[in-house]
Design brief:
This protein is an alpha/beta fold and 407 residues long. It is 39% helix and 13% strand. The longest helix has 30 residues, at 290-319. The mean pLDDT is 97. Pyridoxal-5'-phosphate binds at residues 23, 86-88, 125, 170, 175, 204, 206, 240, 242, 252. GO terms for molecular function: DNA binding; L-aspartate:2-oxoglutarate aminotransferase activity.
């Protein structure tokens, strides 16, 4: 075996400039939606149901587009809102609204509730944490398991503390672990006893149709299960076409109970006279129906599955027999989690940076940027071309080997 220090010096000498940090689609993926930019086309602004999409109004979004996405995000079409380009924005605004105006079933608005805390399954998505940190909502980490958050811990915490007002969930192909919530996890989240009457699940189904294999996994329907359990207002479901059509010019969705939807639309009508319905029409014409979305996602899969396979190959070639080094093999989504022995993640990220390979900062997968074990590294292989992934991952392997050798 080559000396890890010598291999690292060779790596640095290559003068690389590679980036595995953010889960962005590649330009080839964005090109798949190129024909959409010619739609609806001059003179084609009236939707099939007769809406002049150029004008103000239509706060809930174009029905033709909501009909396409309702089955994909498991929300009845009447309870689905199609908005502008970012679901993160919808999550942010929902929490701002909850702080400033009482949610259906809430004893007070959250700014008057004293402490407000959210459960954060870890590892998780840094931008969820960012929203809470900005709004003064405290984050309480709970561990992830292979079937979703540790539900014994979640149930224990929410039953005993009325200041715990919500939980972040990425239920399918989670960021960063690729975890798919089991039906049992979804049922328990929907039906558990919560001390807060205004408890909400932030159900961020960002990767609902983003399969990496032919096993197109379906999850349980959180809205239906919550309604059945007598908690219809508990879930807020989010999704978007950011990683279906165009990351910067897609359409975001919010689905919830009728009471939540009415609450949300009334408050949102104070900040906008309606969403970008021309973009809704463009998306509806381009994607056509749920089957059209699935076919489009199969084309994405062809582009990105080889990149994920490359990450798997280089990691298993190097570490299949190394104790303490493990990684996820996701069936969908945008990320691979690499777990190194405790205390080494930030050192690996530092070594990689010095060698010109940008990795997501260690700790970003945990609230307040602090991974107490300093063990999780999030890898995002969709953006760079395949040859760059190969070079970057070979470099990551060298950095892990050096960090292990120096331990
Ligand atoms: N939610 C998750 C879990 C994500 O990973 C991302 C982007 O990486 C987003 C939301 C962002 O969604 P949007 O582009 O709709 O704002």
């Amino acid at each position: 075996m080559t000396d890890p220090a010598a291999a690292y010096e060779e790596l640095k000498a290559q003068g690389l400039k590679l980036d595995l940090t953010r889960g962005k689609p590649s330009s080839e993926q964005l090109d798949l939606a190129a024909p959409m930019l010619d739609l609806p086309g001059a003179g084609h602004h009236v939707s099939p149901k007769g809406t002049d999409t150029r004008n103000y109004g239509g706060g809930q979004g174009l029905p033709e587009l909501r009909e396409i996405f309702a089955p994909l995000v498991q929300v009845p079409v009447e309870q689905l809102i199609a908005s502008n380009n970012s679901s993160l924005e919808l999550m942010h605004d929902t929490l701002v609204h909850a702080l400033l105006s009482p949610l259906p079933g809430a004893p007070t608005r959250w700014v008057d509730a004293g402490r407000v805390a959210f459960l954060a399954p870890v590892p998780g998505y840094d931008r969820h944490y960012g929203v809470c940190e900005r709004l003064g909502i405290e984050l309480l980490p709970v561990p992830m398991t292979e079937s979703g958050p540790d539900m014994d811990e979640v149930e224990r915490l929410v039953a005993g503390d009325p200041s715990i007002k919500g939980i972040w969930c990425v239920p399918k192909y989670s960021n960063p672990d690729g975890v798919v919530y089991s039906d049992e996890t979804v049922r328990r989240l929907a039906s558990m006893e919560t001390a807060a009457p205004d408890f909400r699940i932030m159900w961020d189904n960002a990767y609902a149709v983003h399969h990496l294999t032919s096993d197109e996994i379906e999850i349980a329907d959180v809205l239906a299960l919550a309604a059945e359990a007598g908690n219809p207002d508990r879930p807020f479901v989010f999704g978007s076409t950011s990683k279906i059509t165009l990351a910067g010019s897609g359409v975001a969705f919010l689905g919830a109970s009728q009471a939540n939807v009415d609450w949300w639309l009334a408050l949102t009508s104070k900040r906008t006279i309606g969403p970008d319905k021309v973009n809704h029409l463009r998306h509806a014409l381009f994607l056509r129906d749920a089957a059209g979305v699935r076919a489009h996602m199969a084309a994405h899969r062809e582009l990105i599955a080889p990149k994920f396979a490359m990450v798997q190959r280089l990691l298993s070639d190097a570490f299949s027999d190394t104790e303490g080094v493990t990684w996820t093999e996701p069936k969908g989504g945008y990320f691979v989690s690499l777990v190194v022995p405790d205390g080494l993640a930030s050192e690996v990220v530092r070594l990689a940076k010095e060698a010109g390979i940008a990795l997501t900062p260690a700790g970003a997968t945990h609230p307040y940027g602090k991974d107490p074990q300093d063990a999780v590294i999030r890898l995002a292989p969709t953006l760079p071309p395949l040859d760059e992934i190969e070079r970057a991952m070979a470099g990551v392997v060298t950095c892990v080997q050096l960090a292990l050798a120096r331990r």
